[in-house]
Design brief:
Length: about 850
């Protein structure tokens, strides 16, 4: 933590503390009740949610909100975002395919691209988490999870353009209590967690909880750890899977109530993780090769791919996160004051095999000359085994050293502060107003290093001869966010309620480049500007970042850049309740996600390597500027929810969203190295419908099902004009969730518990390039009809008994071991895709004891 960050945090703490008066009155806080009928299938009490930063019944909320109550969380053992999403229609997630911090959530067609800003607000006990890495981290002892769909910026603030995940954790219990949980499952999967809660003195309570979990993952590297690896590299690597993990997370909470009117909530957390990384294979989408070799493997559907991992580099990730927050809730005669200050620090790193073997950078390097023929017989991902000799270059993630090693480091520190006044509780007019300030300091570096058989380095830049840096993007991004907001809800009649919210954001962003200006590569060259790819006698002697090349950048330096993004975010709601069992609602709002900057040199690389006519370029006709435009959307929703037949609960909602400058991740590889960037899609239209029902069949069984259908269309895309008419990236055509839950009393103290969940995810394109043909750097056109993921279905099941305070259950996730693709990263100008496999079957045993 640097001194500026410390000073900001201390100032924020002092500001919050100064708000605590000496005389206070009682605050009534809604209890953490269960849910009457949530989409996950509970029936235990009324749903109390905070979907609009106020406590209200879910049946009265004028929006689509999916709720996981404490009972659902306990029954399903949901812990992190991927678990929440799997129980929710209209929401999908790609996570941990490069490292645990790699998270992309899609809600109703709006996605969050890698390396850019999140599109959802993650709010834990009223405190915003700004790092996208936090989205897939545990957040403590969960009491309730709410997933809000549609723009929520007017209520929840920064980056809530597609929705929000609102998490409530358990408060201290009035008496000492706790819980111990354990899990054992296949693939050496274990979990141990503990919770202790209770009073310290009158008016002060605590919660301590933590968990440790590990697994060998689902996929194995069949080369690392083999006899051949030993003979080629002189040592035997660890035969761990590419998606293994070992995680520790600790949480502490102290809740102070110095008087009936004052509540001070202090929290701290620490987590770390290490394990595998980058669980990708590479596939071709080049019909010309399929015809030439008379083999469809060169243009096969990604969903049919059989995953094989044979990288010589043992891919690894390291993650560490810690933070603290303080929240004050103070009641006055006119209403309540809520003030928050929080600090978070996230650091994520990984090293893994490179994707650059196809360009022959390292073909004349001694370890490449030695290891490529020595590993030519390794059974690889198709089609590299059969056609390895014919290509004349090394595959991505190869068992030789010829593809290099890639590394990635993402660090972020932030300070979040907010003050909010609310009033009108129990009157026809409820209101709130406030302001916030957020400071974010982020660094992102991506490098390619020489693979000499010693593994990779966690340094962004190094001249160490074991793994010298050959290609580098390295930037600091600093952000100051200022916002003011207000909201009001008015009971116009006993049946009609009107609401309006308004937020104004100013986000000032700066980028500073860290690439050494005088450093040069040894092997990675640029033949276009007179630096040929290195040979044994003639090093390439090229710039680490092509953006420094005077051919593309006459100044020879990458200057600092600044931009301020501003947006007014209104939201209007209307609720009509003809009776207590029926709610008709409508809402409209503007969503906003700030723009930013691509890694330094992005625009120069695209314009210099891809857009010129051959032989210099490939006439790609694409545009990826250094400046990322802000994303906005205008979203309408109309729905009805209620209860009929004294037990069947339902909800139906339709939505229409028009998006301007949708942000989207793109990946480029070429003889410059590799490049991760974010593009804008000028105009996208999205519309769809969602529906859910749950019904208690009997006192023992309950049935629940919910689904979403989405249509989307790219209306304008200046970055890739030929993609107009295609669908929104990473958006499935439909999702369906459903299942049945059982709670059968066996005796006064014993219940038989069972649950079966199924999930269906429709066909999903992952790029703006879909059924399109593009030029490639190899001179052969690529066609991407087969890069859309096919529909797939998974089933989870659980059966167990509750015996008083003790419970034990057997479970299986992906019961029928459906093999599917988790993620598809399309590189259109490379002629293929980088794909990651989804979670396979896992079965095991959970036990817990409460006291």
């Amino acid at each position: 933590m640097n001194m500026k960050a410390i000073s900001r945090l201390l100032c924020g703490c002092a500001w919050v503390i100064s708000l605590v008066p000496t005389q206070v009155n009682a605050q009534t806080v809604a209890s953490e009740n269960g849910v009457v009928n949530d989409q996950a299938g509970d029936d235990v009490g009324e749903i109390i949610v905070t979907a609009r930063q106020q406590n209200e019944s879910l049946k009265d909320v004028p929006a689509s909100v999916s709720v996981l109550s404490a009972d659902t969380i306990e029954t399903t053992k949901a812990r992190v975002a991927v678990d929440f999403v799997s129980l929710t229609s209209g929401v999908t997630i790609q996570t941990a395919t490069t490292d645990p911090s790699d998270v992309s959530i899609n809600i109703r067609g709006l996605n969050s691209p890698r390396d850019a800003e999140n599109n959802i607000a993650l709010v834990v006990d009223g405190v915003l988490k700004t790092s996208i890495a936090s989205t897939n981290e545990p957040q403590g002892a969960l009491a309730q999870v709410e997933i809000l769909k549609g723009p929520q910026g007017a209520i929840y603030g920064r980056n809530a353009s597609a929705g929000a995940i609102v998490i409530t954790t358990k408060k201290p219990t009035p008496e000492l209590s706790g819980q111990i949980k354990g899990r054992i499952a296949n693939d050496n999967t274990y979990l141990v967690s503990g919770l202790l809660s209770g009073p310290i003195t009158d008016g002060i309570g605590f919660v301590l909880n933590g968990e440790w979990t590990k697994s060998d993952g689902y996929y194995r590297n069949t080369f690392v750890g083999s006899d051949l690896h030993q003979s080629v590299y002189g040592y035997r690597g660890n035969p761990a899977s590419v998606d293994s993990y070992n995680k520790l997370n600790l949480f502490g909470r102290i809740l102070l109530e110095p008087s009936d009117d004052t509540e001070i909530d202090l929290k701290a957390n620490f987590g770390k993780s290490h394990g595998g990384a980058l669980s990708f294979n590479a596939v071709f989408q080049i019909p010309t090769l399929a015809q030439a070799f008379n083999d469809p493997i060169f243009n096969a559907p990604v969903s049919d791919h059989k995953f094989i991992f044979t990288d010589d580099t043992e891919a690894k990730h390291w993650q560490q996160a810690y933070g603290a927050s303080m929240k004050l809730r103070q009641r006055f005669d006119f209403g309540s004051l809520i003030a928050v200050v929080a600090y978070n620090n996230n650091k994520n790193e990984y090293i893994a095999g490179g994707t650059s073997g196809a360009f022959g950078f390292f073909n004349n390097e001694s370890t490449c000359l030695r290891t490529r023929p020595a590993t030519s017989g390794v059974v690889n991902q198709a089609p590299f085994t059969q056609y390895n000799a014919a290509f004349g270059f090394a595959m991505p993630y190869s068992p030789s050293t010829c593809d290099g090693i890639q590394g990635n480091r993402r660090t972020q520190t932030d300070v979040v502060s907010e003050i909010r006044l609310t009033g009108g509780e129990g009157t026809p007019l409820n209101w709130q107003l406030g302001g916030s300030y957020i400071f974010i300091d982020r660094r992102v570096c991506v490098n390619l290093t020489l693979d000499t058989g010693f593994g990779g380095t966690r340094e962004c830049f190094t001249t160490d001869p074991r793994f010298p840096t050959e290609n580098l993007t390295d930037d600091n991004y600093r952000t100051n966010v200022y916002a003011v907001f207000a909201a009001a809800d008015w009971d116009a009649t006993d049946k009609l309620r009107l609401g309006v919210a308004l937020r104004y954001d100013i986000e000032a962003r700066d980028r500073f480049n860290n690439v050494p200006v005088n450093a040069r590569t040894r092997w990675v060259g640029n033949p276009r500007t007179g630096f040929p790819i290195g040979t044994a006698t003639t090093p390439a002697n090229y710039y680490l970042n092509p953006g420094l090349d005077p051919a593309y950048n006459p100044s020879g330096v990458i200057p600092d850049i600044s931009q301020t993004f501003k947006q007014l975010q209104p939201k209007v709601t209307i609720t009509y309740k003809p009776n207590s069992d029926l709610t008709i609602f409508g809402n409209w709002g503007i969503g906003f996600k700030a723009g930013g900057f691509n890694p330094a040199g992005t625009e120069a690389i695209i314009n210099g390597f891809f857009n010129p006519a051959p032989p210099v370029g490939i006439s790609a006709g694409i545009s990826v500027p250094d400046l990322i435009k802000k994303e906005t959307n205008s979203a309408f929703e109309l729905g009805i929810k209620g209860r009929v037949f004294n037990g069947l609960n339902f909800e139906v909602a339709g939505y229409l969203t028009n998006v301007s400058n949708m942000q989207f991740f793109e990946f480029f590889v070429g003889d410059f190295g590799l490049l991760r960037s974010t593009s804008n899609i000028d105009k996208v239209q999205i519309y769809g419908v969602e529906a859910s029902i749950d019904y208690r069949i009997s006192p023992v069984f309950k049935l629940f099902v919910n689904g979403n259908y989405t249509e989307s269309e790219i209306k304008r895309n200046s970055g890739r004009p030929y993609t107009v008419g295609n669908k929104s990236p990473a958006t499935p055509d439909y999702t369906i969730n459903g299942g049945i839950q059982m709670k059968a009393p066996v005796s006064n103290n014993i219940d038989l518990i069972g649950r079966v969940d199924f999930r269906v995810v429709g066909p999903t394109p992952f790029h703006t390039v879909q059924s399109n043909t593009t030029p490639t750097i190899f001179g052969l056109p690529a066609t991407y009809d087969n890069s859309t993921r096919n529909a797939f279905a998974t089933v989870n099941a659980r059966l167990g008994v509750d015996i008083g305070s003790f419970s034990i259950s057997a479970f299986a996730t992906n019961l029928f071991n459906k093999q599917f693709v988790e993620d598809v990263v399309i590189a259109p100008e490379f002629g293929g895709d980088f794909i990651a496999g989804g979670a396979l079957r896992r079965f095991g045993l959970d036990v817990s004891y409460k006291f």
